[in-house]
Every structure is written in C-alpha cells, then in structure tokens.
User: Which sequence fits this backbone?
C-alpha cells in the first residue's frame, strides 16, 4: 500500500471539504469542476468562486503517478483511503490571471502555486478515518449551528488579535444584528504573524467584555490564499455553512499588496450575495480620527485626520518592543502581547 503525507494546508482543506465547511463542494475538484469554477464561477450550476484543488510537486507526482490507491497521512496518522486516482493539468497562467488578476506573474502566491502544483489530482474518498481535532482548532458547522436559536447572526472574519478597528466593527455588528460570530482564521504559519492560540485566546477575552450569550468565537481552520474577491466570497460561503445570515467583508478582504483595488472584494461579494445566500455587509473601513480622538468610519473633518489602525502596525510595535499605543488597542489586550506572541 502507498502513503501520501498531507501538508497542513491540504489537511485543513480535506477537513473542511469533508465536514461541509465549503459546501456544496465536498471533495477536491476534478478538472471539469476546476475549469467551471475558474471560467463560470459555478459548480454543478451553483455559484462557487474558488477551486479547492489537490496538487502535487513533481517528485511526488513521479512517485505516485501509477498508483491505484493511496492512504492519506497527516502527522503519521491515516486520515483517509482514496481510490480512482486521476491526475490532470490546468493551464497555470490562466489560473493566475483568473485568481490574482492581470499582474499575476508578480504575485508571490502565484509563484508558490506553480512550484507546489506540478500536477493536480482528483480521487474518490473510499474511507474516511476518525480525526480528533481539538475544539480550538476545528468545530464542525453542524455542531455550531445547533447552538444558534435565532437569526440574524452576523459574522466577522479575522486573522488577528482584536484591535480598536475590530472592536468598532464588533460593536457595529452587535448593535445592528445582536448576535455575532467572530471566526478567526487559524492554521497559518507565516513568520511574523500571530500564533493561533494567541489569536483565539484574545478574541475570547474581548467577547467576555461584551457580556452576551449571543456572541461566539470559534476557529476557521484554514490558511490565507491571498485570492482577493474570489477568496472573500469563499469566506462568505464558509459563514453561511456555519449558519450565519450576514457577513462583514473588509476593505481589501483577502487581498495582497496592490493586486486588487481596495473595495473589489466588497463589490464582488455584494453583487453575488443572492447566489451566496448570505447578506454581505460592505461598509467603509474604520480608522482613528485624530481630531475627534476616536474610532469612526466616517467623519466631517476638513483636515487630514485619518490614522489607520492595522494589525501589521501593531505587530511592528511588538517586534520593536514598543508599548502599543491605546489609540490602536486597549490596554487589557496589549498587555497580553509581546514578541513571543508572533510566529518566529
Ligand atoms: Zn476626522
């Protein structure tokens, strides 16, 4: 028998696909599905924005190309037995253009994509083995939705420890919809980003202050694809599958540097909200107004009063061992942070 070791990204995709987090997609795409999603944003006539594919590097492909069956392993445990292996190719330039836009050649994730996906593989999942994941890593959508008695339920995606702009958004959503799911993306392991347990712990600490039984923090076990509007729409689908009725799409949601325009993700998701079957909240980004000395998302100042509050700014304070100013983050959060909160 042959074994194939999943990396963490593949494993999280597998977990999400087989637990209906990406529903209606429940397995890695075949060639037909891949192209249909890229060209027409559809999967079996339903709207679907982003192909979740299984790729192999050249050396792994050469090792496995004639195999009939594989055992998929994650951290030396068998996760699944798969059969009817079918390797296929996709025009990588086309993928780059469709996902990352006209400057795709320069997108670092396009370079990564080319390197990691010499060939793509479709298979049938013959047997799925029991996977024990801690609740702080993964929660099944059906287990979570059981807890929700009433709609509306708004949702917020983040990859960060909450700062003042996030807190502004939380309060905006709580006031308007009363129930809120904060669902941080965990499972990334890029140097300089926050560690998973720090993200979860501090988001949970913040909701304690809101003192409501209708506010939740659960993980979204995945990884950033920097795929802009299409990935933002995938995030909306995830929240719909967790039982949410509304989803906040941020400014440059899932964007990377200047590859997308600031509001592309909001516009794309809003245009497709009926097909996504979840209402999209597309508001202006909050900032710190230095004239009024508070966080707002609009003001009438004649002067240039805007100071942006961003996670990367705060992380740079931590790296330089500088106290995070309270205009960026309340003290009860920042006092829990230091250089060790970040991935080394
Ligand atoms: Zn102002």
Assistant:
């Amino acid at each position: 028998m042959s074994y194939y070791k999943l990396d963490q990204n593949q494993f999280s995709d597998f977990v999400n696909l087989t637990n209906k987090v990406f529903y209606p997609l429940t397995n890695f795409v075949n060639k037909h599905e891949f192209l249909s999603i890229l060209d027409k944003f559809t999967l079996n006539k339903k709207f679907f924005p982003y192909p979740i594919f299984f790729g192999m590097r050249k050396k792994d492909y050469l090792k496995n190309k004639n195999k009939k069956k594989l055992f998929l392993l994650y951290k030396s445990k068998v996760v699944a037995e798969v059969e009817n292996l079918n390797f296929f190719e996709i025009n990588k330039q086309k993928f780059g253009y469709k996902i990352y836009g006209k400057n795709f050649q320069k997108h670092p994730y396009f370079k990564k994509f080319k390197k990691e996906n010499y060939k793509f593989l479709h298979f049938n999942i013959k047997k799925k083995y029991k996977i024990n994941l801690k609740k702080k890593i993964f929660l099944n959508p059906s287990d979570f939705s059981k807890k929700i008695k009433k709609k509306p339920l708004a949702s917020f995606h983040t990859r960060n420890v909450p700062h003042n702009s996030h807190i502004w958004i939380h309060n905006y959503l709580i006031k308007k919809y009363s129930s809120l799911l904060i669902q941080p993306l965990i499972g990334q392991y890029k140097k300089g980003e926050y560690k998973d347990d720090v993200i979860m712990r501090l988001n949970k600490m913040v909701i304690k202050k809101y003192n409501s039984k209708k506010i939740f923090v659960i993980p979204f076990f995945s990884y950033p694809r920097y795929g802009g509007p299409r990935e933002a729409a995938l995030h909306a689908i995830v929240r719909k599958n967790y039982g949410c009725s509304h989803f906040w799409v941020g400014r440059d949601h899932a964007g990377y540097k200047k590859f997308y325009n600031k509001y592309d993700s909001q516009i794309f998701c809003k245009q497709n909200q009926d097909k996504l079957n979840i209402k999209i909240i597309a508001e202006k980004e909050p900032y710190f107004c230095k004239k009024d000395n508070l966080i707002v998302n609009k003001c009438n100042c004649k002067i240039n009063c805007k100071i942006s509050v961003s996670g990367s700014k705060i992380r740079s304070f931590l790296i330089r061992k500088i106290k995070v100013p309270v205009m960026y983050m309340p003290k009860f959060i920042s006092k829990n942070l230091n250089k060790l909160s970040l991935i080394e």
